[in-house]
Automatic annotation (TrEMBL):
Transmembrane segments: none annotated. Residues 45-57 have a biased composition (Low complexity). Residues 276-520 form the At3g05675-like ankyrin-like domain. This is At3g05675-like ankyrin-like domain-containing protein. The lineage of its organism: Eukaryota, Viridiplantae, Streptophyta, Embryophyta, Tracheophyta. It comes from Vicia faba. Residues 16-112 are annotated as: Disordered. Pathway: Protein modification; protein ubiquitination. May act as a substrate-specific adapter of an E3 ubiquitin-protein ligase complex (CUL3-RBX1-BTB) which mediates the ubiquitination and subsequent proteasomal degradation of target proteins. Keywords: Ubl conjugation pathway.
Length: 530
């Protein structure tokens, strides 16, 4: 029993955790042999939720008490299961689990001296003995005041009321016994009962924390402790939750139904109640904001965040991240248009009156690199969603960019080959499957620019694995018909002979093409096997 409740002026409950040891002051009690007629009386059981995690256990109320076992408040009170019960167990089982918020503030418990008005024949107002038995063993005995219990819990009020009717008709005034078996968490159930006698419930909930308060809310709902339910909901709505606490609360709301007025604010944090028509396209707004972000550090951080939310392997549900293929391609077209405008500006073909201060406050190389980063980021999202096939056609059709690539500075034009590199690697690693015509169009358009820009790609890798890129280019070439392979491999051979390491090394793929083109039959098979 907690010592703080001994020091209160009005003691309304006490508890014990085990049977006290034998001592001179507390000799062991030997029950009398029951009378034969007392053993044949029928008994009934009544069910009382005793969660957390359990709401189907039974609560048996008995008037079993021997006058010699009524102890003074604060004393350990063992339960003698062998003692015969002269009165039947009572059956009263409220089933409702719906709660409504009080119209006004909850009515405080009646003054403690009102317990004297209840004619129970027990000193100091302790007229209910509640025994909590845990599933895994252990027992807690609480000696409580029936007035407080009835004022706070509809379940206990019904059980105690039925007992009073039975005891008044028989003319006996004995302590009411309530037994709650199969309790999952004895500490939580005891704390819930203690709240009925607590003057400052919000302060008590603040001390026990969110996770424990959810358990207390579950027990309060099970025993119809309306004040406890309302106080827990108010506290939980006002504090932040961890993901574990949020999931625990979400599970609780699937098992208990509360009044909408009481839980509106909490449910607003758990669920999105807007209709599909009124729901904004949040994912599209996020993508647009990132591609137009001017702060490089913030842009990189947000890219990592949003990509993690949108990727297929994300742990988050994608129901509300309604980013469609059309949305992605719309943003992608915008980035390509901006890239074309920047290359026009770099080539001096854009009139000065069309340039704004926003366009000229950063170096050209940085602005071009930012747009290429945006395109590659969108392309990674498309590849993860397996919707990147159309982008290969779009990139192969950029005749204007290809024309400006021939005339642009090598320090700028190599940025375009960074996009082509992502596509070559995706095809070689089988993340992107395209028709032969599409693969051929991509290589016909961007293979030669890649040969020119490879030296700059080696110096400014920006996360690109050069060895992987070289292997990917060779593997992609080998997916074409042999006639087209001949043209592109010979172009590479001449370029490599002039520029050496400034050109990708496709020797391995070149050997495979040579054997397939000029060696026949079993010889080719034997060589490729080795």
């Amino acid at each position: 029993m907690e010592s703080s409740y001994h020091r209160r002026r009005h003691r309304t409950w006490c508890c014990s955790f085990a049977v006290p040891p034998s001592s001179p002051d507390n000799p062991p009690f030997k029950p009398r042999r029951p009378k034969p007629e007392a053993q044949s009386k029928p008994t009934l059981s009544s069910s009382v939720p005793n969660s957390p995690q359990s709401s189907k256990s039974t609560c048996r109320i008995a008037a079993r008490i021997d006058p010699r076992r009524i102890l003074s408040p604060g004393r350990v009170s063992p339960i003698e299961d062998a003692l015969p019960d002269p009165s039947p167990l009572l059956d009263s089982a409220p089933r409702s689990r719906s709660f409504r918020a009080p119209v006004t503030n909850p009515i405080p418990p009646p003054p403690m001296n009102s317990a004297a008005d209840v004619s129970v024949g027990v000193s100091d107002g302790f007229d209910v003995r509640m025994s909590l038995r845990g599933k895994n063993g252990g027992c807690i005995v609480l000696e409580l005041n029936s007035v407080i219990l009835c004022a706070n819990s509809e379940v206990f009020a019904g059980l105690i009321g039925d007992y009073r009717k039975g005891s008044s008709s028989s003319g006996s005034n004995k302590m009411c016994r309530i037994e709650v078996p199969e309790v999952d968490n004895l500490g939580v159930f005891r704390e819930t009962i203690e709240l009925m006698f607590e003057e400052d419930v919000p302060k008590r909930l603040l001390n026990i924390g969110v996770y424990r308060s959810i358990d207390v809310l579950e027990v309060s709902a099970g025993i119809m402790f309306t004040k406890g339910v309302f106080s827990c909901l108010q506290y939980l709505e006002a504090v932040p939750w961890t993901e574990e606490e949020e999931e625990k609360l979400r599970n609780l709301f699937t098992r208990f139904k509360f009044d909408d007025e009481t839980t509106r604010d909490i449910l607003g944090r758990l669920y999105l109640h807007d209709s599909e028509d009124s729901k904004p396209n949040v994912a599209r707004q996020l993508v647009w904001s990132i591609t137009t972000c001017v702060n490089a550090n913030a842009r990189n951080e947000l890219k990592s965040l949003v990509k993690g939310l949108l990727c297929k392997s994300s742990v988050y549900e994608k129901n509300h991240l309604d980013l469609s293929k059309d949305d992605l391609y719309s943003v992608c077209h915008s980035c390509i248009d901006s890239l074309i405008s920047l290359f026009e500006e770099a080539s001096g073909t854009v009139p000065n009156e069309r340039l704004t201060k926003k366009d000229t406050n950063k170096p050209m190389i940085e602005r071009i690199s930012t747009q290429v980063d945006n395109i590659n980021w969108l392309l990674e999202i498309m590849l993860d969603g397996q919707i990147a096939e159309d982008f290969v056609d779009i990139w192969s059709d950029q005749k204007q960019l290809l024309k400006m690539h021939d005339n642009a500075s090598p320090m700028v034009r190599y940025e375009l080959s960074r996009v082509s590199a992502i596509l070559f690697v995706a095809m070689a690693t089988r993340k992107l499957q395209c028709r032969m015509e599409v693969r051929s169009g991509l290589l016909q358009a961007w293979f030669a620019p890649m040969l020119l820009d490879f030296g700059w790609l080696q110096r400014c890798r920006k996360g690109l694995d050069i060895k992987v890129l070289q292997d990917a280019m060779g593997q992609t070439l080998l997916t074409l018909p042999l006639k087209q392979q001949h043209t592109l491999f010979m172009e590479w051979f001449h370029h490599f002979s002039r520029h050496g390491t400034e050109c990708p090394n496709l020797s391995k793929a070149f050997q495979i093409w040579w054997r397939r083109s000029f060696l026949r039959g079993s010889e080719t098979h034997a060589i490729e096997s080795r």
